[in-house]
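Tutorial handout. Part one gives the primary structure; part two gives the three-dimensional structure as tokens.
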Amino acid sequence: MEQTSIVREKGTLRVVVTYPAAKKPFEQDHARRDETVGTLKSAALAAFGLTEGQGADGKTFTYTLFFEKRPLEDLNETLGKIAGSRDTLELKLSQQVTQG
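Part two.
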């Protein structure tokens, strides 16, 4: 079986963000290693059609990215720092709902 690989520019990596309620993950094949968690989170939320904040029913929705089981709370942390020597960074997006 022939295996194809994507040639990445130096300083980039593949990022895959899964969200349980979505049918497909959000993927970036050439994410910059110096891109921040905050930038990626904004792009992932937009791709999944999600917004943070208070809804009409008074509930507040927030979202957190996780690497393995570690919440990525520092929005200025770079993807390269998280990925280390990996070529692919797999993250999970989790929703938190707070009653108003």
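Part three, for discussion. The CA atoms of residues 24 and 41 lie 16 Å apart. The longest helix spans residues 37-48.
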